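Our preliminary data section would be incomplete without showing what the modeling component actually yields. Below, a chain of 175 amino acids is followed by its predicted structure, encoded as tokens that our downstream tools consume directly.
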Amino acid sequence: MNYFEFFGLPVSFRIDEAQLRHLYYQNSRKYHPDFYTLASPEDQEETLRLATLNNEAFQTLSHPELRMRHVLEIKGLLNEEGQQRVPEAFLSEVMDINEILLELELEFDGKRLEQATQAVAQLERALDEAIAPVLDRYTEDSPTSREDLLQVRDYFLKKRYLFRIREKLATFAPR
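Predicted structure:
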């Protein structure tokens, strides 16, 4: 289900978090199972389903990365895990970092680890700064919405790729 529809919110990468929280608490009271103890088993089951949906929707929409994934899934721009392709130009950008990772696996070097960590942080900052205007202006009915969504998808895939690199870098940290 589209979580934005569930809360009656427009599909967006930026949401009013206070409004989301208000709607969540409103639904939490509305669908609380304690209010349905005397209802039919079918009504109790439906209420439990709606309470669960309320929690899942809130957890997704309150987290920016999960919200981004949800919007991209709604728009049909994310395939199954592992079937997405990170843009080739980006892979060229991170080639040096990947080479450092390979070197670290063979022989640990604290300076090289720090160099790679800083390079990842710098790439993440650049990606975040570049996508911010797109996230701010996106609306479903915008004439550029399709292009904006494609940019956001590329950003999302790049960030996930960098997250995996960070995970690899973290394995060297205790040394």
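The first helix runs from residue 3 to 7. The helical segments are 3-7, 17-30, 41-61, 64-74, 88-93, 95-106, 110-137, 145-170. Preliminary results of this kind motivate Aim 1 of the renewal.
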